[in-house]
Design brief:
Shape: flat
Strand content: 25-35%
Structural class: alpha+beta
Mean pLDDT: 88
Low-confidence stretches: 153-166, 517-528
Number of helices: 13
Strand order of the largest sheet: 22-21-20-23-24-30-29
Helix content: 25-40%
CATH architecture of the largest domain: 3-Layer(aba) Sandwich
Number of domains: 3
CATH topology of the largest domain: Rossmann fold
Largest sheet: 7 strands, mixed
CATH class of the largest domain: Alpha Beta
Radius of gyration: 30 Å
Length: 619
Amino acid sequence: MTLSKNLEKKIGKKIKRCQLLIEKDAGITFSDEPTKLIAICNAGLSTGLQQEALLKEALQHGTIQQVLFPPGKSYCFLQCSSITEADGIYTALNGLCTLGQDGAVLLLAFCNSLPAYHDDPWNAGRPNGLILEHDFIDETMEQALLEAVQISEDTDRPDTEPNKTLKHRKVKHFGYEFVYGSNNVDRTKPLERKIPSVCGELWQKLQQLHPHLRWHVPDQLTVNQYEPGQGIPPHVDTHSAFDDPILSLSLGSNVVMEFKQPSSEKAVCVDLPSRSLLIMSGESRYDWTHGITPRKMDTIPAPNGGLTVRKRQLRVSLTFRKLLPNEQCGCTFPRLCDTAQQSVSNRASLLASHAAQVEAENVHRVYNEIAKHFSDTRHSPWPRVEAFVRSLSAGDVLLDVGCGNGKYLASSGCSVVLGCDRSEGLLQVCIERGFNVLQCDCLAVPFRDHSVDACISIAVIHHLATDERRQQAISEMLRVLRPGGRALIYVWAKNQEANAKKSSYLRQNKQNNKPPAEDEAKNPPDTQPVQLERISGAGDCTLPVHTNRTQFQHQDLLVPWKLRSNESTEKATFLRYYHVFEEHELEKLCFASGGDSIVLLESYYDQGNWCVVLQKKAN
C-alpha cells in the first residue's frame, strides 16, 4: 500500500511539527536523507505503544539492532542494521502502521543520533551479587518439582492484590504463607505444607557451586504460575522478613525479568531460561527491584545480533526464602530497607528533639577544636563562589554567613565585605588576617532587615540538624537581604558522582581513581558495615559514621576529621554532623523559606555540592 500525494503531504506536515518538539526535548537532529536511525514521532511509552508490538511489525521489513523507549515520552527510536533496511522499514510503516494512540498511523522520520541519556538494558552490567545458573536442573528434576508442588491442582485462591494484571495469577505457599498486603509472612502461623523433600537435592548442588554464599536451607517457598500476558510488579523482597540470598527457579519456559536500581535509575534485563536458577544476593537482593512486565511476548537479543521477539508460554517459578530470625535487617543498602527507613524515622524524631545539642557537640565544639588545622586546609576559593563575589558593584555590602577562615572575604576589592561565624577559633583566624567579622549563630543574624546587597552561605546549612533549622537559616539570609539583592548557597551533595564524574572529594582517595581489577569488577568486595555513634547528651540518638572519601550512604551522618596533636603521634578523631542533600532538596527548602518573595536565578552542581543563586524580589 502506498500513500496518495495529498495524504503524504498532510503526514509530512505532522512529522515536521513532531520533529521540532522532539529536537527540543531530546536534543537530537533529523535528516532528510535515510540513516540507520528512525524516530517514531507520535508513539512511545506515554501513548501505550508496546516495544514487542512495534518490533513484530518492523522485523518483517528489516533487522533491528536497538530499540529505545524514553521513559514517559510519546516518541521512541529504532536503530537498524543498515540504511537500506531502515529505508525499507520506513517505507512499510510510515503513515500506514496503525500502532499509534487510538489506532492512529505511525509517523516516522530519520534522525542523526539517539538521545545521549540512553542505557541499553541488555548491555548494562548485571547488578552486583546477581548470579544466573543455566541448566541448574535437568528435565527429569524439572518434572519431579512440578509434580511435587502441583501448581495446576490443589492451588490456593488466585492472588487478590488490587492490581488487576495479577488477579488471575495462581500462587501456592509452603512453610509459611506469603501475605501480599504486607509483603511478609505470619510467623505465628506456619503451614502444615512444608517445602517438598525433593528440593533437598537443590541445596546440596548450590552449596557445592557457591560455597562463598551465606548459606542456609530455605523455610518458605512461593510457587507462582504465569500464563502468557501475566507478570509481577517491580518489588524488593522485604529486608526485615527474609535473609540473603533469595533464590528463584524457573520451570516450564523462559521469561525476561527486569531489574531497576532506584538510586541510579539503572535498568537491566535478564533472560531467565527454563530450568535456570537465579540467585539474588548482596546488592542485587537489597538495592534493586525485580519484576516481570505483563505481556505476551518478550524482546530479546537475536542469536546473530540485534533484537527479536519471543512468545511467552506457561511458566512456573519457585521462589525460596529463609526467614530472618530477629526481623531486623543489617544491610548497607538503606534506600529500599524497611529496617533502615524505620531507623531513619526514629532518628529524625530524635534529631528534632536534640538538634541544638547535636550541633553544639558535633559542629560548634569540633570546629573550635580543629580551627587551625581546618583553616590550613581551606585556602583556595572555589571559582564560582569567587566569581559571584567579584560580580558585586562598588559599594555593595556582602555578608558571608558562616565565613570560616574568611577565604572569600578577600575576594572582592571594591565591595564592603562582612563575615560572621559561630566558631571562636575560626573568627580568630579572620581577625589575624584583618577581616571585619563578628560572632553569631546563622539562625539569628544580628543585622537589620534589608541591610545587605548580597549574602553567601558556603558549606554551612548542611551542619543544621533539622529541616526547620535549615529553613530558618535561609529565612535569616533573605530577611537581611535588600529587595533585588542576591544570595548564593552551597551545601554538600549526597551524590558525589554527578554526571558520571567523581567529585574532587572522592578523587582524593587514590583507590577511587584506579580502574577495578577484572575479578573485583565482577565480584566487588562487600560493603563495610555501618558504624553508629551515640551523640553525647542527646539520649538514644545515634548517627552513622561516614568513611571518608567514599560515596555517601546516608543523609544524616557524622564525618570524621583526624587531627594529630603536637604531643602525640596518634591522630585524634573528631566527628562533625552533616545533613547531605539530595538533588532538588535545596531548591525546595529555599522556596519553603522565601515563598513568592524570591526568584531562583540558577541551580547547579559544583565541587560535589548542590548550589543555588537566589534573588529577593523588589517590593
